[in-house]
Amino acid sequence: MKTKLLIAFSLFFFGFAQVEAQEKNKALEYLEFLSKENEKLNTQVWQYTKAVAHDKRPRKIEKTRKNLVTQIQLSKRKISQMPSVDGDDTYKNEFVNYLTIYENSINNDYAKIVDLKEIAEQSYDAMEAYILLQEKVDEKMEHASTEIDSAQATFAKKYNINLVAGQESDLSKKMKISNAVFQHKNAAYLPFFKANFQENLLIGSLGSHNVGDIQQKASALQAFAQEGLDSLQTIQAYNNDSSIIDVTKKVLLFYKEEAEISVPEMIDFMLLNDKITKMQQALESKKAKDRTKEEIDEYNNLVKQVNTEVAKFNKTNERLNQERTVLLTEWETVSNNFLSKHIPKN
Predict the structure, then answer these.
(1) What does the pLDDT look like over 190-213, one tens digit per residue?
(2) Keywords on this record (predicted)?
């Protein structure tokens, strides 16, 4: 199954605190203006977040990303044109620098993430690199956000403006929720993908009937499934919702049973089938008069055994295919429902 991935940029924000002052001096107007620009930016970030979480149309997601970039560029231009406060451009320049980092992240880092997404399904290492890059982008934006908060505090102190932490806005709360939801989903996704990818390799080997390769890939699948089950025990339910954890556990248990029980049974049949093929070739290489009764009896007994085992083999294969389809469909549905349920829509 080719699973769908949601690209979730770090949704960082910084809320400007309420300001207590007797009059609106130039420095205070500075803070208020930047606060309004920040609010516009966060609104566009939220639109992008909703599109990533709820919209299945790539064009719609890309459109909201471009709208976000446009808002960043517009805010940069407006802020850059602001006059200095008593010849001091420090805070303004810090803010513009923050927006530049944000713009580069949305453009360049986003492009890298998209490129990695294109190959992420091709290997576990590629998928791990894809998720790791998202985390690094998050860390970079978090650092930039901390820097601008510090610059704001320094600016306010310089002009004797008392900053009082205000109540968190609804938008800020929604963005925090979105971050937490994506992080929880990704925590379960990576062990799922690791085992899922290995099972795809195993299925390819089953088609080749290369017993040594099948055994090696089945052993790796068993190890990855157990590793994933162990890692799930360290993940807490999100707001009492353990659906992602539960469905991932079901899939991993299926992979574990497949590797430990079903595949060895299928290998036994392959070995039996190889044996009768070689015996048939040996008999056919002899003239009828040279074939012994013991050889013919052994061959006929093997034919009966193969006919019995082939039914079991086909039944096992059919069962695995059906269970796999049901479980992977369930995982996809639960994953989508989890995001839809917990990420606010408005």
Answers:
(1) 899 889 989 999 999 988 888 999
(2) Coiled coil, Signal
Q: According to the 3-state scheme, what is the secondary structure of the chain?
A: CCCCCCCCCCCCCCCCCEEECCCCCHHHHHHHHHHHHHHHHHHHHHHHHHHHHHCCCHHHHHHHHHHHHHHHHHHHHHHHCCCCECCECHHHHHHHHHHHHHHHHHHHHHHHHHHHHHHHCCCHHHHHHHHHHHHHHHHHHHHHHHHHHHHHHHHHHHCCCEEECCCCCHHHHHHHHHHHHHHHHHHHHHHHHHHHHHHHHHHHHHHHCCHHHHHHHHHHHHHHHHHHHHHHCCCCCECCECHHHHHHHHHHHHHHHHHHHHHHHHHHHHHHHHHHHHHHHHHHCCCHHHCCHHHHHHHHHHHHHHHHHHHHHHHHHHHHHHHHHHHHHHHHHHHHHHHHHHCCCC
pLDDT of 300 over the 70 cut: yes
Q: What is the mean pLDDT of the chain?
A: 80
Tokens of 223: 């190890």
pLDDT reading at 48 higher than 80: no
- What's the CA angle centered on 186, arms 182 and 190, to 5 degrees? 170
- pLDDT tens profile 15-39: 444 444 433 467 888 888 887 887 7
pTM above 0.85, yes or no: no
